[in-house]
Amino acid sequence: MRRWLAWTIGVALVVSAWGVLQITPSQDDAEAPFPLAAAIDEATSARGFVVTVTDVRLASRAVAGGWSAEGTWLVVDLRAEATQDETGTILAHAELVIEGVAYRASERPASLLRGGLTPGIPREGSLAFELPGDVARDTATLELGISDDPRLDSLVTLDLDLGTLDAEDEVELLETGWTER
């Protein structure tokens, strides 16, 4: 074999190997959740549950029954129900992602976080996110799912522009309860 042909084949193999490395997904990409885009007042169906975000409010004080707290609060009102299992379906993943930083829904007020869902019987309530004041004007993505670990699972996502929300002095979380369709 001629020397130039051997070099050409060698370079082609190296370039091919580099190309394969570039298109091979990373471990994180291979385990990424399946995002399902949602809109306000639109039911979005994911694996095991259906959710409708009905309102998003921003306030400097959040109130839920006898509980209240000062700060920068984003309150998301929603309606959710299970679609498959009679028991064991809970809204376990509720995060607000702002510039790559994830803020979990607060567990302090009574909310739909970790609330059990049943097929055919929607529950409504709120989720409250306590945020640093300087991010309250950025864009964010709300993520909702029924697994603590959303890898390889469906995840309902809602893009929000927090800068368009009018900040209220006080916002009351919806009482968590069953609803009629």
UniProtKB/TrEMBL annotation:
Keywords: Signal. It comes from the Bacteria. This is DUF4352 domain-containing protein. It comes from Microbacterium invictum. The lineage of its organism: Bacteria, Bacillati, Actinomycetota, Actinomycetes, Micrococcales.
